[in-house]
UniProtKB/TrEMBL annotation:
Origin superkingdom: Eukaryota
Primary location group: nucleus
All copies of domain ERCC4, residue ranges: 1-88
Any one biological process term the GO annotation gives: nucleotide-excision repair involved in interstrand cross-link repair
PANTHER family for the chain: DNA REPAIR ENDONUCLEASE XPF
Protein name, UniProt field: ERCC4 domain-containing protein
Family, per entry: Belongs to the XPF family.
Length: 193
């Protein structure tokens, strides 16, 4: 990932989903971060790094990613040329990857699969209801503070997003943790004016 891709993937929650998928399908999952050779080799300036974990700090997000996925290896590259060198070193003494399998893994990771749902269970519910359920799950994953893991927890405890929105601050914090619970509570109570 380039630095801009990394920031975007953190913001959308996509990196968490990708890391989860890689850890599930590969023996040694790797996240390679490629820096722009014309810029400094750092994620954020030293002045921005504090002693506490902040939801807006990329170093905090990287730390949480590493803690949550201990199997994930993180590599840093100073330039595209360095990335090429790293790839060559990693491929030494290994077979070429199965491109078709890699594409299949990347493209078949549906919301149902990520959330641990069995799509065949919903087959009898009708196509329209399936579309509504899929839209609700997609919406849930786009709410602030919600990851695939917390979405699973919420789906096990709430029948609808309306049920989730009506929960108290304490209920949300107990359900998905203090930080995520507070973010979600604030989001649901935010004025639209």
């Amino acid at each position: 990932k380039s630095i801009s891709d990394l920031f975007g993937s953190f913001a959308s929650g996509r990196l968490y989903t990708q890391a989860e998928s890689m850890c599930k399908h590969y023996k040694c999952p790797i996240l390679l971060i490629e820096f722009d050779p014309s810029k400094s080799f750092c994620l954020q300036s030293g002045n921005d790094i504090g002693g506490d974990i902040r939801s807006d700090a990329v170093c905090s997000k990287m730390s949480l990613l590493a803690l949550h996925f201990p199997k994930l290896r993180i590599l840093w590259s100073r330039s595209p040329h360095e990335t090429l060198r790293i790839f060559k070193l990693l491929k030494e003494n290994h077979d070429e990857p199965d491109i078709d399998k890699a594409i299949e893994i990347g493209s078949n990771e549906s919301l149902d699969t990520l959330l641990g749902m069995d799509p065949s269970q919903e087959a009898d519910d009708g196509e329209e209801e399936n579309e509504i359920n899929e839209a609700a799950r997609d919406m849930l994953l786009r709410l602030p503070g919600i990851t695939v893991q917390t979405a699973r927890t919420i789906m096990a405890h709430c029948d609808t997003i309306a049920d989730l929105a009506e929960m108290s601050r304490d209920e949300l914090k107990r359900l998905i943790g203090p930080l995520s619970g507070q973010r979600l509570f604030t989001f649901f109570r935010q004025s639209t004016k």
